[in-house]
Each structure stands twice: as C-alpha cells, then as structure tokens.
From TrEMBL:
This enzyme's EC code(s): 5.4.2.12
Organism: Micromonospora jinlongensis
Keywords: Isomerase
Protein known as: Putative phosphoglycerate mutase
InterPro entries: His_Pase_superF_clade-1, His_PPase_superfam, PGM_Phosphatase
Lineage of source species: Bacteria, Bacillati, Actinomycetota, Actinomycetes, Micromonosporales
Pfam families to which the protein is assigned, alphabetical: His_Phos_1 (PF00300)
Top EC category: isomerase
One GO cellular component term: cytoplasm
Any one Gene Ontology molecular-function term assigned to this protein's record: phosphoglycerate mutase activity
Keyword flag Isomerase: yes
Keyword Coiled coil: no
Length: 213
C-alpha cells in the first residue's frame, strides 16, 4: 500500500516579481507565465501519474497556490481543497503587501531565530514547521495508500523534510525550491503507524525543463 505525496510549489507570482509580502491581501495571484506553468504542471502530472491518479488536490489558501492547484484539480476531476496549514509564513496583517525588504529590516526582531520570530508579529520558524508538518501528516493519514497533490510554497516543500524525514527544526542545510516544481515522497509503510513510517524522496524541485524564474 503505497502512499504518494506530490508537492508542487506555485507558479511565478506577482508578489515575487514585486518583492512584496504576499499574504491574503498582498498576494494578487500568478503572472501570465505562472498560469502557463500551472497548466503545464497539470499536463505533466496527468502524463506522469496516469496509472496512479491523485484522489485529492490540496492547496494553501493563498491565491498563487489556489490558482496553481485549479488546473491540476480539473485535470484529475476533483475539487481542490484549500488548507491554511499549507501556507507559507503567517505574516501579521500590518505586513501584508509591504515590500519584503522593508518588513525584514524595519520590523526585524533583535535576536530573532528558531523559536523567536525574525520580524515583529510573525510566526517563528518552529511554529511554521509544526503547523505545516501537522497539515502534511493529517493529509497523509487521511489518504494513506493513495496519491495526493499538495500545492503550496517553498516552506510547504521544506516542511515535508521535517514531517516525513524527521529533520531537526534547525536544519543543517538550505533548500532552493524553484517555482512550478514537483517534489515527491512515497512510503510503503502506514503513514499513521508507530514508529513513524520511513519515506523515500523520489524527486526534488523537478521543473520538467522550465527555466528557473
Ligand atoms: O511567501 C513568500 O514570498 C515565499 C516565502 O519564502 O514563499 P513562496 O514564494 O513560495 O510563496
């Protein structure tokens, strides 16, 4: 009984190009290229996982992820489910739409780190890891033995390294997750079992040939 989690980082987004904090207000969705990438992802996944169709497509609640998930869900004939647990940083409302550089410098918290937020009112990294990991584990448990697509952010893909591969909260390496890329983990163990299932990382940041945005 193989459980397969296919993580997708959203396509190119306006907030990235504009360099602003892309929370619920600041995120204005995908660029034209991002929409094209989302359709390409849907086609790629349809070809690649034809024999093992995803039973569900999840996304974060942010527009860039919702818009990326839509064509994928349509391709598999399912209704996308938005789950706030898969979001990137839960930044505070005052920061939403601010230039990211300004948020990071003018609102920096002295001594911010793993357990203390880096910016005033932001989540800490440890809080993000727990929130995202919990959402991933709930989804894996709910769909054990099946294939699921999870559309999110760099941090959603990073979260899987903590949830599925038991990495320490302070990881000893960085991850660079390209937009519109696929990262895939599988396990033949019970994802809800104890001790925890061992997962295999099948691919990371696979863009299928798109130039890195
Ligand atoms: O929110 C963001 O700007 C970043 C943070 O790393 O995530 P993503 O671009 O993947 O949404």
């Amino acid at each position: 009984m193989r459980t397969r989690l296919i993580f997708v980082r959203h396509g190119e987004s306006l907030h990235q190009l504009e360099g602003i904090v892309g929370g619920p207000r600041g995120c204005r969705g995908l660029t034209a290229l991002g929409h094209e990438q989302a359709h390409d992802l849907a086609n790629r996944l349809t070809n690649e996982v034809a024999a093992d169709r995803p039973v569900a497509v999840y996304s974060s609640v942010l527009r860039r992820a919702v818009e990326t998930a839509q064509p994928i869900a349509t391709a598999f004939g399912v209704r996308p489910v938005a789950d706030c647990g898969l979001c990137t940083w839960h930044t505070p409302p005052y920061a939403d739409g601010l230039p990211t550089a300004r948020f990071r410098t003018e609102h920096a918290v002295p001594g911010g780190g793993v357990f203390r937020p880096f910016e005033e009112g932001n989540e800490s990294w440890a809080e993000l890891v727990v929130r995202v990991s919990r959402a991933i584990m709930e989804i894996a448990h709910r769909h054990r033995g099946a294939t699921v697509v999870l559309v999110g952010h760099s941090e959603t893909v990073e979260g899987a390294f903590h949830a599925l591969a038991a990495q320490p909260v302070f990881r000893g390496f960085d991850l660079d997750v390209p937009p519109a890329s696929i990262t895939e983990w599988t396990t033949d163990h019970d994802p809800g079992g104890w001790p925890p299932a061992r997962w295999t990382l099948r691919r990371f940041g696979d863009t299928g040939g798109w130039a890195k945005a």
